[in-house]
């Protein structure tokens, strides 16, 4: 194992030098020496642990933990995926899996919920963004990595699992859930008060295709003339970049959708919509909230900047970075999830750590003045916004909130009212 590690370290050093040449054009002899020196230090530490630690250790697990620590020190979204975790990730973007249905991350050494998925065990149990999961089946997971927590919570469909939740201002409590199939279908539609309502819950490989099918069904239901659409992106944690582009393209008639910028300017990309708006310019209201992240923010930001939609809800999560999945030895050694770039809306906005502020601030519940606002900016090691902007505190005086006894979806109800007003205004302008 020791010889294998030294060989791997030398190979890594050579690879690091090659990467530095690619990224910077050259690598000085001094920086190469620093790389080798630090690798030698790592090898010395490993050797001492192997020789002197109080119990026998698993060298492979120790090195894997070191890799995880290195990547997690970069930002909250860079991580090492073990072979099993890499396979799980591929399943979640392409197939089905047995689980609870939520996006999680690590914050202050605690597994923290970013967003629950709609109509899943997590969603139906009332799990909220910012909830911290401190135990699974009675076993503490404080200090666990995100991948370790996922491994515990996923499992055979139909099997029960108990998670312990820590929520601000409440005592910890248990939720007894049953794992279900987390389905591929991320798009659903229905008619709401004479308008189309589209719920997009995530962005996997089939999202754009499923959206086009839903729009075709909607057009047929409205006899070919869709009067207006509410697109619900609340608690949508994101997903594949190409699917966010495809979804946005559905509602634009050409023009820019998003630009991605990388360390190497030669890799920057600008993505444009193709001619043809599938709903023929009908008014759009997009619903977002603090659980709308990443790919859903690309869609919302593009439609807002292009003045194609009015945004209603609360300021979004603020994840404006791009992650690249890099398989290691074809996936046999797992993969790296590495933050490699940032994305920018058509007007040039970076929403990293700031989020998208809707045109109409509307909350689904009454917000207390001293409540903590959970967002990308509150995550350990989150990238700063490169334009120098910071997330603005919500101006609660400007936020519409439901009455105390309101029984319904206040945000959706307001979105439909606003859509109705937009439709009337458009019809008046045509007369």
From TrEMBL:
The keyword Signal applies. Residues 1-23 form the signal peptide. Keywords: Hydrolase, Protease, Serine protease, Signal. The keyword Transcription does not apply. Residues 86-154 form the PDZ domain. SMART domains: PDZ, TSPc. It comes from the Bacteria. Belongs to the peptidase S41A family. This is S41 family peptidase. It comes from Hyphobacterium lacteum.
């Amino acid at each position: 194992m020791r010889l294998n590690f030294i060989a791997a370290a030398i190979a890594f050093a050579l690879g690091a030098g090659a990467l530095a040449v690619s990224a910077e054009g050259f690598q000085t002899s001094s920086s190469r020496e620093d790389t080798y020196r630090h690798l030698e230090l790592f090898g010395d530490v490993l050797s001492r642990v192997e020789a002197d630690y109080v119990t026998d250790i698993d060298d492979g697990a120790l090195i894997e933990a070191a890799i995880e620590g290195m990547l997690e020190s970069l930002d909250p979204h860079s991580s090492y995926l073990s072979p099993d975790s890499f396979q799980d990730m591929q399943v979640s973007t392409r197939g089905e899996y047995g689980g609870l249905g939520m996006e999680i991350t690590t914050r202050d050494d605690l597994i923290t919920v970013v967003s629950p998925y709609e109509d899943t065990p997590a969603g139906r149990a009332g799990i909220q963004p910012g909830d911290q999961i401190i135990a699974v089946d009675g076993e503490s997971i404080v200090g666990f990595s995100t991948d370790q927590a996922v491994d515990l919570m996923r499992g055979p469909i139909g099997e029960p699992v108990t998670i312990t939740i820590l929520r601000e201002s409440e005592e910890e409590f248990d939720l007894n859930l049953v794992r279900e199939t987390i389905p591929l279908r991320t798009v659903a539609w229905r008619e709401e008060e004479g308008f189309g309502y589209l719920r997009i819950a995530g962005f996997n490989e089939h999202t754009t295709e499923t959206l086009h099918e839903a729009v075709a069904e909607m057009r047929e239901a409205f006899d070919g003339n869709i009067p207006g659409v509410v697109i619900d992106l609340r608690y949508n944690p994101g997903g594949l970049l190409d699917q966010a582009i495809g979804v946005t393209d559905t509602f634009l008639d050409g023009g820019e959708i998003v630009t991605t910028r990388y360390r190497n300017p030669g890799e920057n990309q600008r993505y444009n919509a193709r001619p043809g708006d599938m709903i023929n310019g009908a008014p759009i209201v997009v619903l977002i909230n603090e659980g709308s992240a990443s790919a859903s923010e690309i869609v919302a930001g593009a439609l807002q900047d292009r003045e194609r939609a009015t945004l209603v809800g609360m300021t979004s999560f603020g994840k404006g970075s791009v992650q690249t999945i890099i398989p290691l030895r074809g996936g046999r050694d797992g993969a790296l999830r590495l933050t490699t770039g940032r994305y920018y809306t058509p007007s040039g906005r970076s929403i990293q750590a700031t989020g998208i502020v809707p045109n109409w601030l509307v909350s689904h519940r009454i917000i207390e003045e001293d409540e903590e606002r959970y967002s990308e900016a509150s995550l350990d090691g989150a990238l700063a916004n490169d334009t120098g902007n910071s997330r603005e505190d919500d101006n609660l005086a400007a936020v519409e909130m439901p009455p105390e006894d309101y029984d319904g979806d206040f945000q959706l109800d307001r979105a439909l009212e606003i859509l109705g007003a937009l439709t009337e205004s458009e019809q008046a302008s045509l007369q």
